[in-house]
Amino acid sequence: MIMSLQNVALELLRLSVWFLLLLLLLGGAEMLFAAHKSKGLRPAYWQDIGYFFGNGLLFKLAVVPLLSISALALSFLVPGSLQNWAISLPVSMRALLGLFVGDIAYYFVHRAMHQVPGLWRFHAVHHSAVVLDWLVSARAHPFEIVFTRWISFVVLYVLGLARPQESGMADLSTLLIFAAGIVWGFFVHANVRWRFGPLEWLIATPAFHHWHHANEAEGQRDHNYAAMFPLIDRVFSTLHLPYTLPKRYGIDEAMEADVSGQLMHPFKRH
Ligand SMILES: [Zn+2]
Ligand SMILES: [Zn+2]
Questions:
Q1: Dist CA 267 CA 24 (whole Å)
Q2: Which intervals hold domain Fatty acid hydroxylase (predicted)?
Q3: What is the whole-number distance in angstroms between the Cα of residue 201 and the centre of ligand 2?
Q4: Ligand closest to the CA atom of residue 189
């Protein structure tokens, strides 16, 4: 479970490749198709690079092993025949179903992060960004990463839609779910003015998630909780998708300017 130094170095290398790819694709798109005019490098940019690598390591170091252990411990909850049915599905079908079921779990845990005061204090770190771009996706308290990812994925592991790594071999549909979820998370934060017409009702887009970060009126953040499928918000009456983009992002409460203060934010008196 404990990563060797060599594995940590390998993971950092992998994260660096991801970072450069995302910077090239999404950073490039933001330069060409910006929704809000960039005023140069925003002050928290370097912090968010730190969150990118720190939380990326944490995901591999803590969330993945925790998932494997809890999936084994909780597998008795679901009949073996249901797990076997899920495992027998074609990879693409299992990945798609996994993304959808995982997003339903994420919807509820994300909604709880907003509505339970003790959980909001952790999630406030993510929402404290006043300028949105692709890298803001990485800006999250480590507890939020472990808690939300664990809940969203453990459901899939228990149902057989995703599987723990076995003898060094990762399951393809699990990798697809991880990769699609992470890449989509970065995409929906991107500062791009693209709109996708009727497709926006089918799949989350930057406009969908930008409205989740809006700070223009009371209760503005109480919608668009899903990560990928707006249909889930529609079913639970929390969808808000006008044809404009928000002008203001962030939160009203004070957030510490330094990372150590942000990490301690949930534990301070408010
Ligand atoms: Zn949120
Ligand atoms: Zn966000």
A1: 37
A2: 96-238
A3: 18
A4: 2
Q: What angle do CA 128, 182, 143 make, to 5 degrees?
A: 50
For residues 200 and 243, the answer to whether their CB atoms sit within 8 Å is no
Ligand 1 center–CA 125 separation, angstroms: 10
Residue 218 DSSP SS3: coil
What are the residue ranges spanned by the domains of the chain? 45-250
Question: pLDDT tens for residues 10-67?
Answer: 999 999 999 999 999 999 999 999 999 987 788 899 999 999 999 999 988 888 888 8
Provide the token pair at 13. Answer: 């290398």
CA of 237 to the centre of ligand 1 (A): 16
For the beta carbon of residue 232, count every other beta carbon within 10 angstroms: 21
Position 257, amino acid: A
**Distance separating alpha carbons of residues 62 and 68, to the nearest angstrom:** 10
> How much distance in Å is there from the Cα of 136 to the middle of ligand 2?
7
Number of the ligand closest to the Cα of 113:
1
- Contact (Cβ atoms closer than 8 angstroms) between residue 45 and residue 209: no
Q: What is the pLDDT of residues 177-231, one digit of tens each?
A: 989 999 999 999 999 999 999 999 999 999 999 999 999 876 666 899 999 999 9
Nearest to 208 by CA among 243, 247, 169, 249: 243
Quote the ligand 1 centre to 74 CA distance (angstroms).
28
Q: How far is the CA of 139 from the centre of ligand 2 (A)?
A: 8
Locate 251 and state its tokens.
Answer: 């939160």
Query: 91 CA distance to ligand 2 centroid (A)?
Result: 29
